[in-house]
Design goal:
Elements: H1 4-14, E1 23-26, H2 37-43, E2 49-52, E3 55-58, E4 61-63, E5 71-74, E6 82-86, H3 90-98, E7 101-103, E8 109-117, E9 128-130, E10 135-143, E11 149-151, E12 161-165, E13 168-171, E14 173-178, E15 181-185, E16 188-191, E17 201-205, E18 215-218, E19 221-224, E20 232-236, E21 248-252, E22 255-256, E23 266-267, E24 278-282, H4 301-304, H5 309-314
Parallel strand pairs: 1-2, 2-5, 3-6, 4-7, 5-8, 6-8, 7-9, 8-10, 9-11, 10-12, 10-13, 11-14, 12-15, 13-16, 14-17, 15-18, 16-19, 17-20, 18-21, 19-22, 20-23, 21-24
Protein backbone atom coordinates (compact mmCIF):
# COMPACT_ATOMS: atom_id res chain seq x y z
CA UNK A 1 0.00 0.00 0.00
CA UNK A 2 1.39 3.37 -1.02
CA UNK A 3 1.81 6.05 1.57
CA UNK A 4 1.33 9.70 0.72
CA UNK A 5 5.11 10.09 0.81
CA UNK A 6 5.72 7.24 -1.63
CA UNK A 7 3.08 8.58 -4.02
CA UNK A 8 4.71 12.00 -3.91
CA UNK A 9 8.12 10.44 -4.53
CA UNK A 10 6.86 8.56 -7.60
CA UNK A 11 5.18 11.72 -8.90
CA UNK A 12 8.36 13.72 -8.54
CA UNK A 13 10.38 11.00 -10.26
CA UNK A 14 7.96 11.17 -13.20
CA UNK A 15 8.67 14.85 -13.83
CA UNK A 16 11.55 15.16 -16.29
CA UNK A 17 14.42 17.38 -15.24
CA UNK A 18 14.73 20.60 -17.24
CA UNK A 19 17.13 20.33 -20.15
CA UNK A 20 19.63 23.15 -20.59
CA UNK A 21 19.81 24.77 -24.01
CA UNK A 22 22.65 23.41 -26.12
CA UNK A 23 25.68 25.67 -26.50
CA UNK A 24 27.94 25.70 -29.53
CA UNK A 25 31.28 27.46 -29.26
CA UNK A 26 32.81 29.28 -32.22
CA UNK A 27 36.48 30.23 -32.15
CA UNK A 28 38.52 31.53 -35.06
CA UNK A 29 41.63 29.92 -33.56
CA UNK A 30 40.12 26.43 -33.67
CA UNK A 31 39.56 26.06 -29.93
CA UNK A 32 35.77 25.75 -30.26
CA UNK A 33 33.31 23.45 -31.99
CA UNK A 34 33.50 25.48 -35.20
CA UNK A 35 35.74 28.16 -36.67
CA UNK A 36 32.92 30.09 -38.38
CA UNK A 37 29.62 31.41 -37.10
CA UNK A 38 27.88 30.24 -40.26
CA UNK A 39 28.89 26.63 -39.61
CA UNK A 40 27.50 26.93 -36.09
CA UNK A 41 24.19 28.31 -37.39
CA UNK A 42 23.93 25.38 -39.80
CA UNK A 43 24.43 22.92 -36.94
CA UNK A 44 22.14 24.67 -34.46
CA UNK A 45 18.57 23.82 -33.56
CA UNK A 46 15.91 25.94 -31.87
CA UNK A 47 17.11 27.16 -28.49
CA UNK A 48 20.81 26.77 -29.25
CA UNK A 49 23.20 29.35 -27.85
CA UNK A 50 26.08 30.13 -30.20
CA UNK A 51 28.90 31.50 -28.07
CA UNK A 52 31.54 33.29 -30.13
CA UNK A 53 35.05 33.74 -28.81
CA UNK A 54 37.04 36.90 -29.45
CA UNK A 55 38.17 37.38 -33.03
CA UNK A 56 37.30 38.83 -36.41
CA UNK A 57 34.95 36.79 -38.57
CA UNK A 58 34.81 37.64 -42.26
CA UNK A 59 31.87 37.25 -44.60
CA UNK A 60 28.12 37.10 -44.27
CA UNK A 61 26.36 35.33 -41.43
CA UNK A 62 22.92 34.22 -42.65
CA UNK A 63 20.29 32.98 -40.21
CA UNK A 64 17.48 31.45 -42.29
CA UNK A 65 13.83 31.47 -41.25
CA UNK A 66 13.99 27.82 -40.19
CA UNK A 67 16.54 28.58 -37.45
CA UNK A 68 14.22 30.34 -35.01
CA UNK A 69 15.03 30.73 -31.34
CA UNK A 70 18.81 31.03 -31.64
CA UNK A 71 21.04 33.21 -29.51
CA UNK A 72 24.29 34.47 -31.03
CA UNK A 73 26.50 36.10 -28.42
CA UNK A 74 30.01 37.28 -27.91
CA UNK A 75 31.55 35.08 -25.23
CA UNK A 76 33.34 37.84 -23.34
CA UNK A 77 30.39 40.23 -23.06
CA UNK A 78 32.44 43.04 -24.66
CA UNK A 79 31.04 43.99 -28.06
CA UNK A 80 34.38 45.04 -29.53
CA UNK A 81 35.93 41.61 -28.88
CA UNK A 82 33.87 39.87 -31.57
CA UNK A 83 33.68 41.53 -34.99
CA UNK A 84 31.60 40.16 -37.87
CA UNK A 85 32.73 42.08 -40.93
CA UNK A 86 31.86 42.38 -44.59
CA UNK A 87 32.18 44.95 -47.39
CA UNK A 88 29.58 43.92 -49.96
CA UNK A 89 27.47 46.68 -51.54
CA UNK A 90 23.80 46.45 -52.37
CA UNK A 91 24.58 47.60 -55.91
CA UNK A 92 26.09 44.20 -56.73
CA UNK A 93 24.38 41.83 -54.27
CA UNK A 94 21.00 43.32 -53.40
CA UNK A 95 19.87 44.22 -49.89
CA UNK A 96 19.97 40.69 -48.49
CA UNK A 97 23.21 39.84 -50.22
CA UNK A 98 24.98 42.92 -48.93
CA UNK A 99 24.01 42.42 -45.28
CA UNK A 100 26.86 41.28 -43.06
CA UNK A 101 24.25 39.76 -40.74
CA UNK A 102 21.15 38.55 -42.56
CA UNK A 103 18.71 37.52 -39.84
CA UNK A 104 15.48 36.04 -41.17
CA UNK A 105 14.64 33.95 -38.09
CA UNK A 106 11.98 34.65 -35.50
CA UNK A 107 12.72 34.83 -31.77
CA UNK A 108 16.45 35.35 -32.14
CA UNK A 109 18.74 37.22 -29.78
CA UNK A 110 22.04 38.79 -30.83
CA UNK A 111 24.25 40.33 -28.17
CA UNK A 112 27.73 41.41 -27.13
CA UNK A 113 29.31 41.74 -30.57
CA UNK A 114 30.02 44.05 -33.51
CA UNK A 115 28.52 43.79 -37.00
CA UNK A 116 29.98 46.02 -39.68
CA UNK A 117 29.88 46.69 -43.38
CA UNK A 118 33.00 48.60 -44.38
CA UNK A 119 32.02 49.32 -47.99
CA UNK A 120 31.54 53.04 -47.30
CA UNK A 121 30.15 55.70 -49.60
CA UNK A 122 28.87 54.84 -53.05
CA UNK A 123 26.12 52.31 -52.44
CA UNK A 124 23.75 51.10 -49.79
CA UNK A 125 25.63 48.44 -47.82
CA UNK A 126 23.86 46.86 -44.88
CA UNK A 127 25.40 45.76 -41.63
CA UNK A 128 22.20 44.14 -40.31
CA UNK A 129 19.10 43.00 -42.20
CA UNK A 130 16.49 42.26 -39.51
CA UNK A 131 13.78 40.41 -41.36
CA UNK A 132 11.73 38.47 -38.82
CA UNK A 133 9.51 39.01 -35.80
CA UNK A 134 10.53 39.21 -32.13
CA UNK A 135 14.23 39.81 -32.57
CA UNK A 136 16.38 41.32 -29.81
CA UNK A 137 19.74 43.07 -30.30
CA UNK A 138 21.52 43.89 -27.04
CA UNK A 139 24.96 45.43 -26.68
CA UNK A 140 25.52 45.20 -30.43
CA UNK A 141 27.67 47.65 -32.38
CA UNK A 142 26.25 48.15 -35.90
CA UNK A 143 28.61 50.05 -38.16
CA UNK A 144 28.02 51.19 -41.72
CA UNK A 145 27.60 54.22 -43.94
CA UNK A 146 24.35 54.02 -45.91
CA UNK A 147 21.54 51.70 -44.76
CA UNK A 148 23.30 50.28 -41.70
CA UNK A 149 20.25 48.66 -40.05
CA UNK A 150 17.14 47.52 -41.93
CA UNK A 151 13.94 46.41 -40.22
CA UNK A 152 11.87 44.83 -42.97
CA UNK A 153 8.67 42.79 -42.98
CA UNK A 154 8.19 42.55 -46.73
CA UNK A 155 5.68 44.40 -48.86
CA UNK A 156 2.18 45.20 -47.67
CA UNK A 157 1.03 45.69 -44.10
CA UNK A 158 2.80 42.71 -42.49
CA UNK A 159 5.17 43.90 -39.76
CA UNK A 160 8.11 42.45 -37.87
CA UNK A 161 9.10 43.62 -34.38
CA UNK A 162 12.63 44.21 -33.15
CA UNK A 163 14.07 45.59 -29.94
CA UNK A 164 17.54 47.17 -29.86
CA UNK A 165 18.86 47.88 -26.37
CA UNK A 166 22.05 49.47 -25.05
CA UNK A 167 23.70 49.25 -28.44
CA UNK A 168 25.61 51.51 -30.85
CA UNK A 169 24.46 52.31 -34.39
CA UNK A 170 26.39 54.52 -36.76
CA UNK A 171 26.13 55.65 -40.35
CA UNK A 172 25.46 58.65 -42.54
CA UNK A 173 22.53 58.09 -44.89
CA UNK A 174 19.19 56.47 -43.95
CA UNK A 175 21.07 54.24 -41.57
CA UNK A 176 18.07 53.19 -39.48
CA UNK A 177 15.30 52.35 -41.92
CA UNK A 178 12.50 50.09 -43.04
CA UNK A 179 8.84 49.28 -42.46
CA UNK A 180 9.18 47.23 -39.29
CA UNK A 181 7.97 47.94 -35.78
CA UNK A 182 11.36 48.88 -34.33
CA UNK A 183 12.27 50.16 -30.87
CA UNK A 184 15.77 51.55 -30.29
CA UNK A 185 16.23 52.01 -26.57
CA UNK A 186 19.13 53.39 -24.50
CA UNK A 187 21.39 53.32 -27.55
CA UNK A 188 24.10 55.60 -28.93
CA UNK A 189 23.29 56.74 -32.47
CA UNK A 190 26.28 58.30 -34.24
CA UNK A 191 26.03 60.26 -37.49
CA UNK A 192 29.26 60.14 -39.47
CA UNK A 193 30.82 63.41 -40.60
CA UNK A 194 30.82 63.76 -44.39
CA UNK A 195 32.30 67.25 -44.04
CA UNK A 196 29.35 68.66 -45.90
CA UNK A 197 26.50 71.06 -45.35
CA UNK A 198 24.37 67.92 -45.62
CA UNK A 199 25.69 65.22 -43.30
CA UNK A 200 22.86 62.86 -43.94
CA UNK A 201 19.69 61.43 -42.44
CA UNK A 202 19.31 59.15 -39.44
CA UNK A 203 16.04 57.40 -40.29
CA UNK A 204 14.08 56.47 -43.40
CA UNK A 205 10.79 54.91 -42.38
CA UNK A 206 8.40 53.25 -44.82
CA UNK A 207 5.73 52.22 -42.31
CA UNK A 208 2.55 51.03 -43.97
CA UNK A 209 -0.36 53.43 -43.49
CA UNK A 210 -2.41 50.73 -41.74
CA UNK A 211 0.22 50.28 -39.02
CA UNK A 212 0.16 52.62 -36.04
CA UNK A 213 3.77 52.09 -35.01
CA UNK A 214 7.01 52.30 -36.96
CA UNK A 215 10.37 53.43 -35.55
CA UNK A 216 10.75 54.57 -31.95
CA UNK A 217 14.02 56.04 -30.67
CA UNK A 218 13.84 56.40 -26.90
CA UNK A 219 16.18 57.08 -23.96
CA UNK A 220 19.02 57.33 -26.47
CA UNK A 221 21.89 59.67 -27.34
CA UNK A 222 22.26 61.15 -30.82
CA UNK A 223 25.80 62.41 -31.39
CA UNK A 224 28.23 63.38 -34.15
CA UNK A 225 31.43 65.27 -34.88
CA UNK A 226 29.66 66.88 -37.86
CA UNK A 227 29.05 70.59 -38.02
CA UNK A 228 26.08 72.10 -36.23
CA UNK A 229 22.67 71.67 -37.83
CA UNK A 230 23.81 69.47 -40.74
CA UNK A 231 22.06 66.16 -39.92
CA UNK A 232 18.36 65.41 -40.37
CA UNK A 233 16.38 63.17 -38.06
CA UNK A 234 14.95 61.42 -41.07
CA UNK A 235 13.20 61.46 -44.38
CA UNK A 236 10.06 59.98 -45.83
CA UNK A 237 10.81 56.74 -47.71
CA UNK A 238 8.03 55.47 -49.92
CA UNK A 239 9.60 52.10 -50.66
CA UNK A 240 8.97 51.18 -54.28
CA UNK A 241 7.10 54.49 -54.56
CA UNK A 242 4.23 52.90 -52.63
CA UNK A 243 1.69 55.58 -51.82
CA UNK A 244 0.70 53.80 -48.59
CA UNK A 245 4.24 53.85 -47.14
CA UNK A 246 3.43 56.56 -44.63
CA UNK A 247 6.49 56.37 -42.39
CA UNK A 248 6.10 56.70 -38.62
CA UNK A 249 9.03 57.88 -36.46
CA UNK A 250 9.01 59.15 -32.89
CA UNK A 251 12.14 60.42 -31.13
CA UNK A 252 11.43 60.77 -27.44
CA UNK A 253 13.17 61.16 -24.08
CA UNK A 254 16.54 61.34 -25.84
CA UNK A 255 19.57 63.63 -25.88
CA UNK A 256 20.09 65.31 -29.26
CA UNK A 257 23.45 66.83 -30.17
CA UNK A 258 23.92 70.14 -31.96
CA UNK A 259 24.42 68.35 -35.27
CA UNK A 260 20.64 67.95 -35.57
CA UNK A 261 19.00 70.47 -37.86
CA UNK A 262 16.59 72.99 -36.43
CA UNK A 263 14.94 73.85 -39.75
CA UNK A 264 14.73 70.81 -42.01
CA UNK A 265 15.07 68.15 -39.33
CA UNK A 266 12.63 66.07 -41.40
CA UNK A 267 13.27 65.87 -45.14
CA UNK A 268 11.41 65.08 -48.35
CA UNK A 269 12.49 62.05 -50.40
CA UNK A 270 12.00 61.05 -54.04
CA UNK A 271 9.31 63.63 -54.59
CA UNK A 272 7.35 62.77 -51.44
CA UNK A 273 6.94 65.49 -48.83
CA UNK A 274 7.97 64.67 -45.28
CA UNK A 275 4.56 66.00 -44.30
CA UNK A 276 2.98 62.89 -45.83
CA UNK A 277 4.67 60.86 -43.07
CA UNK A 278 4.14 60.70 -39.32
CA UNK A 279 7.22 62.32 -37.79
CA UNK A 280 7.21 63.62 -34.22
CA UNK A 281 9.33 64.26 -31.13
CA UNK A 282 8.60 64.27 -27.43
CA UNK A 283 10.47 65.43 -24.33
CA UNK A 284 13.96 65.53 -25.82
CA UNK A 285 16.99 67.32 -24.38
CA UNK A 286 20.38 68.57 -25.53
CA UNK A 287 21.46 71.38 -27.84
CA UNK A 288 19.79 69.69 -30.79
CA UNK A 289 16.32 69.61 -29.31
CA UNK A 290 13.80 71.86 -30.99
CA UNK A 291 14.10 75.56 -30.33
CA UNK A 292 10.51 76.05 -31.46
CA UNK A 293 11.01 75.54 -35.19
CA UNK A 294 7.65 75.08 -36.89
CA UNK A 295 8.70 72.04 -38.93
CA UNK A 296 9.59 69.89 -35.90
CA UNK A 297 6.22 68.52 -34.73
CA UNK A 298 5.98 67.74 -31.03
CA UNK A 299 3.78 64.99 -29.61
CA UNK A 300 1.53 65.85 -26.70
CA UNK A 301 1.98 64.15 -23.34
CA UNK A 302 -1.45 62.56 -23.62
CA UNK A 303 -0.62 61.03 -27.00
CA UNK A 304 2.88 60.02 -25.90
CA UNK A 305 1.36 57.78 -23.22
CA UNK A 306 0.22 55.53 -26.06
CA UNK A 307 3.61 55.55 -27.81
CA UNK A 308 5.84 53.74 -25.33
CA UNK A 309 8.28 50.91 -26.05
CA UNK A 310 5.84 48.38 -24.62
CA UNK A 311 3.00 49.67 -26.78
CA UNK A 312 5.12 49.48 -29.91
CA UNK A 313 6.18 45.89 -29.34
CA UNK A 314 3.18 44.25 -27.67
CA UNK A 315 1.40 43.22 -30.85
CA UNK A 316 -1.38 40.67 -30.44
CA UNK A 317 0.73 38.29 -28.34
CA UNK A 318 1.84 40.70 -25.61
CA UNK A 319 5.56 40.42 -26.41
CA UNK A 320 7.55 42.50 -23.93
CA UNK A 321 11.36 42.36 -24.10
CA UNK A 322 11.66 45.94 -22.83
CA UNK A 323 14.29 46.55 -20.15
CA UNK A 324 13.71 49.02 -17.28
Amino acid sequence: MFTFTSVLTVALMAVPAPVAAATITVAADGSGNYTTIQAAVAAASSGTVISVKAGTYHGQVSVPAGKSGLTIQGASGTATDVVITGNTPQSTAGAQGSATLLNLAKDTTVKNLTVQNTYGEGSQALAVYAGADRQVYRNVRMLGFQDTFLSWGGTGSAQVRQYVYKSHIEGAVDFIYGNGDLVIDSTTIVSLNRNSSNNGYITAAATNASNKYGILITRSTLSSSAAAQTVALGRCWHAGNAADAIGQVLVRDSSLGGHIRQAGAWQDMSGFSWKTCRFTEYNNSGSGKTQGTSDRPQMSAATAADYTSQKYLAGSDGWNPVQP
